[in-house]
Amino acid sequence: MVNLKQKTALITGGSKGIGLGVARSLMEQGMRVAITSRSLEAAQKAAESLADVGSGEILALQADVRNFQEQEQAVAAVMEKWGQLDLFVANAGLGHFASIEEMSHEQWHEVIDTNLTGVFYSIKAALAGLKASKGFFITISSLAGTNFFAGGAAYNASKFGLTGFSQAIMLDLRQHGIRVSTIMPGSVATYFNDHVPSEADHWKIQIEDIGKLVVDLMHMHPRTLPSKIEVRPSMPGGKSQI
Q1: At the top level of its lineage, which domain of life is listed (predicted)?
Q2: Does the chain have fewer CB atoms within 10 Å around its N or its C terminus?
């Protein structure tokens, strides 16, 4: 099993939801973790909640994945503080859901620029550091990346694109010793799309479940690469069937 103590991770969109759950799981393994958010205040508040977790360290950074320079600055901050980058989790994402008749140009671009172009900017910014460490790049896609639905034109397009992008760069980068995986969750108990998690979400995937999955990927022998992982609730509830 790979020892994760003192290894370093950068997680986009790490102030809440899946990103926060992954950060906690990595810190429990003794990893040094940087989390980004478009709001520095949100990142700092999340970092404070993780300060006493495990034996790892936490760093809060402001960065918008839609801005390549801010992605470069976030990676540079990690390298300056810890000198290495072993894992990048491209988690930041959002959704606007409306029929194509009602979808605005602004909503379309916000979804595509965040969920797809933001991941392109992330790997471009992280590439040198991941080459040096022979590290791991994990994207958080969605089962919406293979299952389309009405009102999902922008979100489906972004996640179908992200799934394909992740698999293509996996083939590009494994020759450098960089492993690329995409995790495709179904219903997760998060604040996504203005949802507020509650006891009614007990049937959903929990953020710590995705965190455990990332830890398991990191622990896997480098010779083996699960490149695309679908994960869904065992017993779906409500209207969701994925």
Answers
A1: Bacteria
A2: N
Q: What is the dihedral of CA 1, 210, 109, 120, to 10 degrees?
A: 0
* pLDDT(203) > 60: yes
Which pLDDT value is given to residue 194? Answer: 62
Can you give the pTM of this predicted structure? Answer: 0.94
Q: Which domain holds residue 118?
A: 8-231
Which one of 82, 121, 155, 160 is the catalytic residue? 155
Determine phi and psi for 26, rounding to 5 degrees. -70, -40
Q: Which residues pair with 205 in a beta bridge?
A: 188
For the stretch 178-194, pLDDT in tens is: 999 999 998 887 666 66
CB of 241 closer than 8 Å to CB of 193: no
Domain contains 54: yes
Domain count for the chain: 1
Residue 238 is assigned to a structural domain of this protein: no
